[in-house]
Structure formats: structure tokens, C-alpha cells
Structure prediction request, 622 residues.
Amino acid sequence: MDRKLLLEHIGVEGIHTHDVYRKQGGYKAVEKALKSMSPDDIVEEVKKSGLRGRGGAGFPTGMKWSFIAKPEGVPRHFLCNADESEPGTFKDRYLMEKIPHLLIEGMILSSYALGCNQSYIYIRGEYMYILQILEKAIAEAYANGWLGKNIKGSGFDLELAVSAGAGAYICGEETALIESLEGKRGNPRIKPPFPAVKGLWGRPTVVNNVETIAAVVPIVNEGGDAYAQFGIGRSTGTKLISAAGNINKPGVYEINMGITVEEFIYSDTYCGGMKNGKKLKACVPGGSSVPILPHYLVCKTAAGEDRLMSYESLADGGFVTGSMLGSGGFVVYDEDQCIVRNTWNFTRFYHHESCGQCSPCREGTGWMEKVLHRLDYGHGKMEDIDLLWDIQRKIEGNTICPLGDAAAWPVAAAIRHFREEFEWHVNEPKLCITKNYGLVNEKKFEPVNA
Amino acid sequence: MSQENIQLPEDLLQEVGRQIAKFPEGMQKSALLNVLHIAQAHFGHLSEPVMDYVARLLHILPIEVYEVATFYSMYDTVPVGKVKLEVCRTGPCMIEGAEKIVSYIEHKLGIKDGETTADGMFTLKTVECLGACGYAPMLQAGEKFHEHLTEAKVDELIEKYRNNPKANYLGL
Prediction:
């Protein structure tokens, strides 16, 4: 099945406008839902679809929705997480820019399903031009009766607004997002209580990623069972992958989950192969937080089976020989790239983005950045590698939010798979400034820190 | 600037009102980030008097504004140039040559990362991932993205903004 579910009409001229979107079958799902489905029917279809959160964690959306508390007389809120800032990820931006009404339609369906009458799209401040695209589209939706009071005579009211962040990766964490939307610093909250019980302004709240919300549209249109026909196993449906790095065709692709990683990298339909005929060295398949895979574990699992673009297959082997689908931020590295430098760069990112609440993350990311910097510049010692391993272990699992884990995992995976290259940086302090290590030899090398 | 001089023009005050109206009554603090963007675009940076003014607009305490203004990386609490050139330096941009773009701009403008040109026109900053990894290297000038950068493209856009610094804002 090569059909696209989200980007099917992306090439249609003017699809960002209401009228063209409508002509292509847009807002049919809202009509169907308001006419013939109860809110619980929609939740049921989403459960049947097997849809999992597209922001990175992959949690089943229907289950997340079913957690929302419904105390009498307390308003509930539905929020869209458009704070896309995971390095390697630029798919939500593409969707919102090209086909904003798909997100709005998904917002209406989800808000109806959850009984929310006031919903917000929280978008990162740097995407100001997309915020303007969304506001224009929302105005069109109001003008055409898809938003506001008594939508299409159904008795369902929905107000929808966009609110901007101001440069903070941490606001992609849902409780930090809620804090930020309340006009505060983006400090994640201690859970429980979960947002489903106490979220925005202390009210029951559900936060979903842009792509997750957009996927509700085809689910309502075609039914959860039909949606579940796409994909493979528990990775149902399609997934937007943003591909970057040393490939011929960087960009955003909607894939049917279950195609092979090899096809994704080398076929002309997707990445179009390695740029300049270089060899593949490594791949970060799901955004900077997920473990990096060395070339021999990218297209095949440790057991020698084809690695597929799915939640399960990318995670095959756990963190020892696998990784994660994550946010779908797919970064490909060729033989000329330096793993030590790349790890230092990502660690600097996490140090910069740590909110500072928890010491292991606030201090640990800074220490790792410093140690990696000296390794990269040829000033490192052999024991620095074990020191790094020790620091990342002490961050992982010891923080309020997952940013700590997200900072620890890339360091752990880099050492696990590329220890040789780190050692080379210590042994060749002058050479490592001017040259790169090249490819890791899989035969000579087995992961040590399993 | 003394406190009396700090006042947004009527059209921007209306925009502030529109931001506040997005939230239920009594929840006007939620508009803070949006209002700070408006204030910064108008006043150039968020000085203490500007932050106090924003606090009055939203009926919140000045400290509530300070703590937010100092948390988010897009806000400047010290003066910056009329045009901020923010080059993304994170992973995917780095492997596509972000560092070369930074040093090219440094040489061209005679400033280092974080500095402002003597004429107060440009500030150069390196920033973390802006979500343009597939179109690297890239920079953000004010509210505008410039992608697939080359030295020639950098020349072009510096020339453009020198002639019309306001062009880096999208406008209302």
C-alpha cells in the first residue's frame, strides 16, 4: 500500500486554503463525526486504529485519551504540541505549512472526542511564519462555520487559538508546555498528577503532537480498522519521516510503516542514497535523543534480519544493538563524519536546553559537554571515556522529565558502538584535529558496554 | 528611556488585546510570551522598564515577567542590533557546514558570535536546532528563515537587511 494518508493532496495547488482543502474532501471527517458519531465512538475508532503518539514516545493515543478525568462542571482542554525542536525533526513544520487545515480538522475531531471547548496549538516561537499561516487558516475555518459556537448545528462549541513559545526545547515536554502556556518558565512538573487529571490551569488536559492529531482525520474518515491495515504489527498507519544529513534528497516523507530502512535510505522515492557516493557510517533514526546506530546495524538487526521503519524493528535489540523510531528525525552520517564531534555537539544542545531544575541534568550535561569537547580537540585522557559513561548513567532515570534520558542515551550509544573512535582521539591527539577516524570495523569490534 | 515614554502604539495595543482574548478571563498571564514578542519587536529589546510595562499590561507582577524573559532564548534583555542573524549550529546543520557560515559572517561583519556591529545594525548569534535540518545550513534573521545557505546567499541577505532592517519582521 503506497497510499498516503496525511500528505495525499500535498501537491494540489492552493491546498493550504480552506476552499481547495474542502474541495479535496477536507472537513468531511468533521461532518461525519458531528452527524453520526458520539465522542466515545471517536475514542473507540482511535483505539482500534492502534495510533501511537508521533512526537517521540509512541504511547497509544486512544489509551492516553481514555485517561482524561471528567469531573462535573470543570472545563477540559485539548492542546497541540507544535514545539517541534528535536534535532533532526522538521516534519510538523512541513505539515502545518503545507496543509494547515488538516491539523485544524484533527483538532476539531479530537476536541469533540474529549469534550473540550477551548483548544490551543502551542507552537515554537521560531516558527512565527507558520503561526501566521495557522492563524489565517483558523480564521478561514471560523468563517466557514467549522469553529465557534454550535458548529454546523451540532450543538458542539469549539474555540481554537495559537500561542507562541519563545525558544525552549524543554517546552516540547507536555507539562513544561502547559507551564509555558500559562505564561511561566518551561519547568516540567512532577507527575503525578498527570495532565489528564490536572493540566492547563489545573484542569484535565490532553496534549498530542501535530502529526498524531492530523492522523485522527483519516481514522475518522475511513475507520480505525481501515487505518490499522496500514503499517506493520503494532506500528499501524503511516509516519512522517524528516530525513537530513549526508543523503541526496533530504526532506519530509510519509512512509507506510514497515518498509525497510535500506529502501528508505537508498531508494529514489525517499532519501535517494548517500551523497557523493560516500559510504554510510552511522544513522540516528529518530531524532538526536535516540541511540546512534553504526553502519552495520542500520539496515540489518543484530540477528541479520532486515531492519524496518517501525517502532518495533528500530528498537530491535534494545539499546545494545537497536534504537528508536522516536520523532522520525532521521539523520544519516557518511564516512567523513566524526562521531566524537557529533556527540559533543548534541550534548552541548542538551546542556543549553536543560531547564536547570534537576542537578543530574543541569550539571551532568555540562560536564559531559566539557569532557566531550576536550576529547574532540585532542586533549582527552583514556579515563575520560569511562567518566562519560559514568556521568550519563547517573543522569538517566534521575530527573523529573525525560530530557535527562534524552541527553544520556546519545552519549551511551556513541561510546557503546564507537569506543574505538573515542580511544583514537586520545591516542592521536594531533591527527584527530585534521582527520576523521572513518568507518568502524564490525568484525574487529563488538559492543563492550552492553 | 524613562517609564513615561514606554508605550506601545494603538495598533500594537490592539494586538496585545487580541492575544489576551485568546484565554479565559483571569488567565491573561497566559498571553505573556506572545506579548513579550510584540514588545521586543517594537522596542528592540526587553529592558527592565519595558518588562515592567508588560507587567502592567497584563496585571501581573514584574518578577513574573523577568523570570520568563530570562528563561527563553528568543528574548533579549540587553540591547542587540536591528537585525539578529541567528545561525543554527546543531548536529545536522554542523555536518552541512554551519561553522563555515558562522566564520564567514564573523569575517564579513568583523564581529564574533554574540557581538553586535559598531553601527548597531547586526548581531550574530549561534543558536540550537531551528527545525530546518533538511535545508541546512540555515540562519534565522528576526522572524525569517534563510535556508540552503552559501556565502553568496549570506552576502545577498546582509545587503538586503542593511538597506531595510525592518524586513526581518513579518509584521502583523
